[in-house]
Design brief:
With about 400 residues, the chain is of the alpha+beta class. It contains eleven helices and 18 strands. The chain is about 25% helix and about 25% strand. The chain has a nine-stranded mixed β-sheet with strand order 1-2-10-7-12-6-5-3-4. A hairpin with a 4-residue loop joins strand 3 and strand 4. The protein is elongated. The structure holds succinic acid and cobalt (II) ion.
Length: about 400
């Protein structure tokens, strides 16, 4: 079987087709899949905003703006967040700086007018139009965004370098607050002129630098909630609608086999009590419940030990006969699953052995085995240092 040809990375647009193709073709071949440079997407593009208007907006309270200056010699970046004032602009060097203002479509109807061209996307997927002004050499450095973006070139020229290598390293430079990439090796480079547009799906590394003179860029950015945000909000939504009387219930309870264990019967009851828990694998459900139930309705949590002990000091104390008292505010539970045995304490999880986890839940005072295993020492050390176990007594040596 012959593979279908890879769609071209560069096309030409026209007044009739800003994407250089029909929206249906663009969505099928490029959207969320691969970058696309559209030359002449907006023929004779007239910017809906002047640089002075942008600078004025950056000085407004409530406008989200950033002034970014790159000291090329020392490779230092400085970021000033708005509201800015005239003096900030007075201090800018002759090159290597950029001003970026987010949500300009909310402030300026002409800028918002650009969105007409993106009606083929659900309106709730659109986030904002960010507008940037950059002096030669100005940019925000190489980075990745989590969202799709259309980078529409306004007046001036901008050099864009991107990497569509899925294996390219994505680690950040530790010294810069801009989340710039520590390493960036472009796979494609272009010089964009007014009216050209670069579409980038999420996670494509990119770096845009004003070239030859000042330039403006209009970034039409999308939004897509993370699974974490969706899950959190759905849980809140469901929680608000559930009556308080509907609770975890265990009329089928039988005498506990091992104190504190979150057993399979508990998991079955949780699945019955939670509308979407049945879809979770048992180990995740166990891990979540262990963390939750040991945090639930705790008026206080034990304070961490200051200074913390190390494993050698703990071993010495235990060998000298020290006892471990469970802190009265410590709430413990444990479980064993495919991924091993865990002890939970005040919302934290510690790798454990079933024997020691059971003993810790059952007894207030513990005389640990003469030769605890490395897992057990690590568990006891974690619990001692986090304040859940308090050392008492033991002969001095
Ligand atoms: C810009 O500098 O206008 C675009 C910034 C970006 O790459 O997100
Ligand atoms: Co970007």
């Amino acid at each position: 079987m012959t593979k279908p040809p890879v769609p071209p990375i560069e096309v030409r647009g026209s007044a009739r087709q800003p994407l250089g193709m029909s929206p249906a073709r663009f969505l099928h071949d490029y959207w969320q899949k691969r970058p696309l440079l559209i030359r002449n997407a907006f023929p004779d593009f007239k910017p809906p905003l002047e640089p002075d208007d942008l600078a004025g907006l950056a000085c407004e309270d409530g406008a989200l703006s950033r002034l970014i200056v790159h000291d090329e010699k020392r490779d230092r970046w400085s970021v000033k967040t708005g509201p800015l004032d005239e003096a900030d602009f007075g201090r800018t060097p002759g090159s290597n700086w950029t001003l970026l203002v987010q949500d300009v479509d909310k402030w300026d109807a002409d800028v918002a007018g650009l969105l007409e061209h993106f009606r083929f996307l659900p309106s709730w997927r659109l986030d904002d139009i960010m507008v940037s002004y950059a002096e030669p050499g100005g940019g925000v450095g190489a980075h990745v965004d989590q969202y799709d973006v259309f980078l529409l070139q306004g007046p001036g020229q901008r050099h864009w370098a991107i990497s569509d290598d899925p294996h390219a390293p994505k680690d950040f430079r530790p010294d810069v607050e801009l989340k710039q990439l520590a390493r960036f090796e472009p796979t494609h480079e272009w010089l964009l002129e007014a009216g050209d547009m670069l579409y980038l799906p999420p996670n494509i590394a990119h770096d845009g630098v004003a070239f030859g003179g000042p330039c403006m860029t209009f970034s039409i950015g999308m939004r897509a909630p993370s699974q974490a945000e969706l899950t959190g909000d759905l849980a809140d939504y469901l929680a608000e609608r559930l009556p308080d009387e509907q609770r975890y219930a265990d009329p089928d309870l039988v005498p506990a086999r091992a104190a504190g264990e979150i057993d399979n019967a508990t998991l079955a009851r949780l699945k019955a009590a939670l509308p979407f828990a049945a879809a979770l694998d048992d180990d995740s459900l166990r891990d979540w419940f262990g963390r939750f139930i040991t945090r639930y309705r705790n008026a206080q949590t034990p304070a961490a030990l200051e200074p913390p002990l190390d494993a050698t000091a703990l071993r010495k104390k235990l060998a000298a006969g020290a006892q471990l008292l469970r802190h009265p505010w410590s709430r413990l539970a444990w479980s064993r699953g495919k991924t091993g045995c865990m002890l939970y304490a005040s919302g934290a999880a510690y790798p454990a052995t079933p024997e020691l986890a059971g003993q810790l839940c059952e007894r207030r005072t513990l005389n640990p085995a003469a030769a605890p295993s490395p897992t057990e020492v690590a568990l006891l050390l974690g619990l001692v240092n986090d304040g859940h176990l308090v050392l008492r007594g033991g002969r001095r040596r």
